[in-house]
Each structure stands twice: as C-alpha cells, then as structure tokens.
Amino acid sequence: MDAFYASCELLRYPQLKGLPVVIGGGRRKEDDLLGKLQAAYPDSEWTEATFAERLDRIPLDFFPRIEGYTGRGVITTATYAARQFGIGSAMGLMKAAKLCPQAILLPVDFDRYRHYSRTFKSIILDIAPVMQDRGVDEVYIDFTHVPGGQREGGRVLARLIQKSIFDATGLTCSIGVAPNKLIAKMASEFNKPKGISIVHEADLQSLIWPLACRKINGVGPKADEKLQSFGIHTIGDLAAREQHWLVEHFGKSYGAWLFDAAWGRDDRPIETESEPVSMSRETTFERDLHAVRDRAELGAVFTRLCEQVAADLQRKGYEGKTIGIKLRYDNFQAVTRDQSLPGYTADAKQIRQIAGQCLKRVDLSRRVRLLGVRVGSLVKAGTATATISHPMAAEEQGHGPQAQLLFTDD
User: Fold this and answer.
1) Is 273 a catalytic site residue?
2) Cβ-Cβ contacts under 8 Å for 195 (sequence gap 6 or more)
3) What is the pLDDT averaged over residues 172-183?
4) pTM for the whole thing?
5) CA torsion sign, 393 to 399 to 401 to 406?
6) Which one is catalytic: 30, 45, 67, 138?
7) pLDDT in tens, 130-157
8) Quick check: 34 and 51 in contact, CB under 8 A?
C-alpha cells in the first residue's frame, strides 16, 4: 500500500492532499480539536454529533505543524510530499521539524488503519486466494494458477487488484510481479505510488543488478556497511563475488544467502498461514524517567504495557511461557531480560509479576527512556497446560534498592 497510514488519513482529511503530512507521536485526541473548533465557531455546526461528518471542512489553520516540536515522538509514515524533504519512517519528529517545519502533524489512529488493512486484504483474497500476510500494509500473492493471471505477464491481474482496492477504499497500492518473493518485493518499490513493475528472469542484470545492496530485503545497515568496506555497493557487485568468498567473510548461512539473493534466487513459498512467535508492547517516554523519583509514573506505564500484551494475547487466542522486558537507558544502551515459566499464560497480573522479576535483574539506578514487555514461546490458547499461580523466579537478585521500590508484586 502507498504511504498507507498517511493515505488513510487523507481519506478523512482530503483538504490535506498534496501537502507534507507526517503521522506520528501520540494517539488521536479528537476532543481537543473539537474544542478548538467550537471555540472558534461557536455558532456553527461543530458539535460532537456532526464532527465526524465535517472533517473535510476543517480549516488548514487548525492542523498542528511540526515546527518547534520538542519530544521523542517518531514518524510512523509520511506523505510523498513530505518525503521530498527527506522525511521518512522511524525518523524523530524533532529532526523532521528541521527538515520541513511547515509539515502537518497527525496522530496515529491504529483502529482506522486496521480496518482498511482488513478491507484491502479481503478484496485481494476474493481475486487471488493464495496470499501471505506481511503486516498491516503489505502482502505476497501467488497468482500462478489464477485464471488470467499470466496475461501480459501478470499486468492485467495487477491492474484488477489496484482498481478493486481503489474502488472499495479510495486507497492506492504498488505491485511488483516477479518469479519469486525476493524480486517481487524489490519490484514493488520501483514505481511508487500506484505503480506496476514486472521483472522477468531475463531482466536480472538490467533491472536488479544496478540497485544498491540495501534494496535486498534482508541486507541491513551493518551488513551493507561491511559490504561497502569491500567495495561492494550494488547487487551487481555482489553477484560478481564468488560464493566461497562471501561464505568466508559473512558466514556459511548468510554468505550463501547473499550469493543466491544477488542472482535472484529465492525458493520460499507463499505461506498462507503463520503463527506469531511473540507479542510485545513498548513505549518511549517524552522525558527520561527514574525508577525512584518517577516511581508512580513508571509503575503505571509498566502495568499498562503488561495489560496491553495480555489483551493482545487473549484477543488473538494465544498463551506464552517466556516473559521478558526491554529497557533503553538515557545513553541509548538497550538491555533485555526474560524468564520462562513452567507453563503458559495470557494473564496480565501474572505477566506483570514475572516481568517485574526480570526488572530486578537490570540496573534501575539509571534514567530510562524506553520500557517494553514481551511474551514469547507462544501456543494457541488451551493447547498447553496452564501455568501455576506463583512460579519461582529464575533469578531474584536485584541491582540496587531501586528495583524493589518500583516493581512490587501487588
């Protein structure tokens, strides 16, 4: 999907089309905007009952800009107009404010995005039922055996999918058609937005090899940095290296995979069903918090994260037996701890109890900028023996009195 979150917001606020808009920061607070509108137009129809029907008439001046933004919010996505200024996903809002101070800032609305995600995937399944879900805004489709799927190399079916999604939702998508998932993923980025790109096996050298190695899904920043240190900048450069050389410098498994990826080889099937291995929730604080001086605030956040993870597990029908925590300190150093239970659970109180024991094993004398809770080793609810009520901690030693002050088991 093209700039998915931002596109969902532009359906709600069409007056923002063509403008630099970023989605990020906190969750939506429509009551705040409604109050401003009622104060500015006391005699108008800006009431709670008519608010949702008149979103497209909200004046541009009522939308906040990111100019002067202070805080630790990050961008979830941005419109293509904002991306022209160098703004992108996962960028800090403060940095974005320097690049494009006039950009409009909208908060996230995950309920809305999930609705449109379910809608566009349902449309695709009606056309091509062999589909692999790749998150809220991306799927893989195998239409080898879909009637008419091979017409014009797949372009006809790709057009049908684009039109069907747009007619039902008003949203656009870009589609890459290729012999396998690796190349199709790269091709989907060629002509955004609303693009269709077809790559045949014979196109490997002309279309794929000139691309940077980072375009391969699976080559991250560290691997790319190492590749560049050897003078390997493009996929073509990578393909020119012998497999034994790549294995020698990048390891047996990853080196062999790099060799195959450079030559466009990928035999992974479309997986129509997959099971999550873990679920987690985390939050970055607007200011660094201390386990002692900010005990109440941190404790409330910790409890909420545990409750959110438990609710996610229960809603999706899973239980887990490995409970862990993640902290990032004020110097950006991250630490994790986890602990396995003798059985499985999706209970918020129990998750909080064990996660609290994990926190006793980290240094809480330092200020914290991020806190997260994770439950792993998942199974379908009811398929494993439930955990006992009060399992013993694998490790009870703390790293100072702060650990005892913040995370009690009550």
Assistant:
1) no
2) 174, 175, 188
3) 96
4) 0.72
5) negative
6) 138
7) 999 988 999 999 988 888 888 998 999 9
8) yes
